[in-house]
Specification:
Elements (H helix, E strand, L loop, with lengths): L3 H42 L3 H29 L2 H20 L3 H16 L3 H12 L3 H12 L2 H16 L1 H23 L18 H6 L1 H30 L4 H20 L1 H4 L4 H21 L4 H30 L4 H30 L2 H19 L7
Length: 395
């Protein structure tokens, strides 16, 4: 049973609109502002860029670990107070980042920000929409990820403007104010409504999440999604250096990255048509496409229009992968224990997201260049597709 009876259609639309706005803001402040501010931050504080990025990655790992117990709480109590509290925690975390007098304080602030990420980014929003929207969850998940994909489009230039006028510390203080004004009241007031009872397991199956989490299909799904996340985010972070090696200017490479975001949106728009496929076949197809597009981008020497087109294709595969992750649990085991199982599944993916920037650059140096890195990443995507072959759930 979906949440229509509890919220009504207007309530469902309200919840969706709120999460669209808060996901853009949360991703923008807690994630996408960092790569814009990090170089200036490192230069002015004297902390190495590796150390600064390491603190950011530590926050993402914290988010992955906190997300596991948080998923269980979401199943029981719903998203309203959890997402409101996490938003409130994010405000002093960002203020702490802005005012950190030492690297130890900076690291501590990012660990606190990791707790906020666990309760504000995609996993809790996916859990809320999956329970409330029920059979129509793909429509809602597509909408929130489409808008969430605009977080970098909105907040990267906004953060750059704030940096130019205020400096990195005051820029972060302004962004903390944005987080406070937008997300805290939106979650508190917009996520009102009775949290529906968990839907009954289909045909009496999948009644206990413990055995599910230990089952072979779940372990393989978790591993496949983790490898897919590593591939997707390593491609994003290292795409501009790859295109620079191919002779593109910085401006053209940046435009190609931006058009990859357009491809991401277009890919998500087409995900609904793939839901007619069985979950296993869809997973193999999407992860295989992620690996294949990465390989083509890594091998193509040019010309520029072809490289831009391939950047859009990799973006489309990445966009579809986000929705594949969002529906991996519900398509196989239903929505009864979505929060708990999704929290477990998301932990390796978030950890992979955290290490991808550092690992990508390190591997590129070890392999001799970014084209070689992209070939390796294509192999990672292919390995994820192979793991997905074993994710069929049998009665």
């Amino acid at each position: 049973m979906d949440g229509t009876a509890e919220l009504g259609r207007s309530g469902l639309r309200r919840v969706l609109a709120v999460l669209c706005v808060t996901e853009v803001t949360s991703w923008g402040v807690l994630y996408y502002a960092f790569p814009v501010l990090a170089p200036t931050l490192s230069r002015e504080t004297g902390w190495s860029i590796g150390a600064v990025t390491g603190a950011f990655s530590a926050g993402l790992v914290t988010s992955a670990l906190v997300g596991i117990p948080l998923g269980r709480a979401l199943d029981r109590w719903g998203p309203r107070w959890i997402m409101t509290a996490a938003s409130a925690v994010g405000v002093p975390a960002v203020v702490g980042i802005a005012l950190a007098p030492s690297f130890a304080a900076f690291l501590g602030a990012w660990l606190l920000a990791g707790i906020a990420m666990a309760g504000t980014l995609y996993p809790p929003a996916f859990a809320a929409l999956t329970r409330w929207w029920g059979p129509r969850r793909v429509t809602a998940l597509t909408a929130v990820t489409l808008l969430g994909g605009l977080a970098s489009t909105v907040f990267a230039p906004l953060t750059a403007t704030l940096l130019g006028h205020l400096g990195w510390r005051d820029a972060y203080l302004v962004l903390a104010g944005v987080l406070l004004v937008v997300t805290v009241p939106a979650h508190l007031l917009g996520l009102r409504g009775t949290w529906p009872d968990a839907p009954a397991p289909v045909d009496g199956l999948h009644t206990d999440p413990g055995p599910i989490a230990r089952s072979r299909p779940f372990v393989l799904v978790t591993a496949a999604v983790g490898l897919g996340a590593f591939t997707a985010f390593a491609v994003v972070v290292n795409q501009v250096p790859l295109l620079l090696e191919r002779g593109l200017s910085t401006g053209t490479a940046a435009w190609a990255l931006g058009l990859g975001g357009v491809g991401q949106v277009l890919g998500r728009l087409g995900y609904g048509r793939l839901t007619a496929m069985p979950a296993r076949a869809r997973s193999v197809l999407v992860l295989g496409a992620l690996g294949a597009t990465t390989l083509l981008l890594g091998l193509a020497p040019g010309p520029v229009p072809l490289l831009v087109a391939l950047a859009m294709l990799t973006g489309a595969a990445r966009g579809i992968f986000t929705l594949l992750q969002a529906t991996a649990v519900s398509d196989r085991w239903g929505a009864a224990h979505y929060g708990r199982l999704s929290g477990i599944l998301s932990a390796p993916a978030m950890t992979a997201t955290a290490v991808a920037p550092w690992a990508g650059a390190t591997l590129a140096a070890a392999l001799g260049g970014y084209p070689e890195l992209f070939v390796l990443l294509a192999g990672t995507g292919a390995a994820a597709a192979l793991l997905a072959v074993g994710t069929r759930v049998r009665a």
